[in-house]
Write the structure tokens for this entry.
Amino acid sequence: MKKIQMVDLKSQYEKIKPEVDKAIQNVIDSTQFIGGSEVKGFSEELAKYLGVKNVIPCANGTDALQIAMMALNLQPGDEVITASFTYVATAEVIALLKLTPILVEINPDTFTIDPKAIEKAITPKTKAIVPVHLYGQCADMEPIMEIAKKHNLFVIEDVAQAIGADYIYKDGKKVKAGTMGTVGCTSFFPSKNLGCYGDGGAMYTNDDNLAAQIRKIANHGQSVQYIHDEIGVNSRLDNIQAAILRIKLRHLDEYASARNKAAAYYDKAFAGNPKIKTPVRAKNSTHVFHQYTLVLNGVDRNKLKEHLASKDIPAMIYYPLPLHHQKAYANPRFKDVDFPFTVPLCKNVISLPMHTELGEETLKYITDSVLEFVK
Ligand SMILES: Cc1ncc(COP(=O)(O)O)c(C=O)c1O
């Protein structure tokens, strides 16, 4: 059996190696490293896949969030509501722009922001909501969009972990994660479901004016060369990464199926165990399983992790601390009583290896090893 990894990028690469190597070589031969045809082609193909008018690539997912907030002209002191149970990047850019991150509770079954908690946190200063489609499932977007409409708020979807997931409206209509809000922001970090071989990110929007503003901000605040109407940043996806992403985009749905197959194996193996809660599938979203995350009940998580490590099985904790417990984001306004799910979840979640290359032998070894510890 191969060495088990949280994400096996090598085996995935081997299956598409001739195509990828050729595409990389073509970019090198063209010496068009920045802003070339691959970037344009990838942006158009991703827009088509997502069913969105504009895809604007950038250097990484954190930049995508930052540029989106700059393009929406959010101002210091504006409040932006997001979940405390997320990766730091979501709140980091809010704080970096001197906006105020307002951290709220999630739904304990789906790990995504609770619309009722959003509504409770709204003040006259609230300008935007950032739902995070955590672990590969969409946040509850229909009520979130209703709240946004009612209070005239922007919605910036953090799609870093859920590219390709479908949200299903009450009337049955299906749309891709990141295309419902004002703007969607994603990451192409190598381990992401659509990952490149370095850093990358993108923003998507159906609003052409906002797209133009995003392009401008991402390019030093210029729409005409050397004319800078406002302060921007330098954030680009390079042509080699775009060439790789074009190939991997063609496999994205098949990758999601492979992840779902592994998730189904895990589900079955752990079914009925009172000490293990397997991921709950939201009724209004497909799951692309960026992570397969268990919630432990009465199990010593550190000891389980050590037990797995002793058998060469990696496991990760996403995330060990709620953001409101992090020194950088602490605020007397955030009280643990308002986070009855987030606080214990941070102590009890554990993510198992999840990627596109997990075979039954490996899955059996992992699940047997977990169950050996969690009797
Ligand atoms: C939820 C979430 N948001 C934002 C990001 C930031 O993406 P990047 O690492 O490409 O900057 C990540 C990446 O890990 C993420 O998981």
Observations:
- Residues 60-62, 86-87, 89-90, 132, 158, 160-161, 187, 189, 199, 201 surround pyridoxal-5'-phosphate (CB under 6 Å).
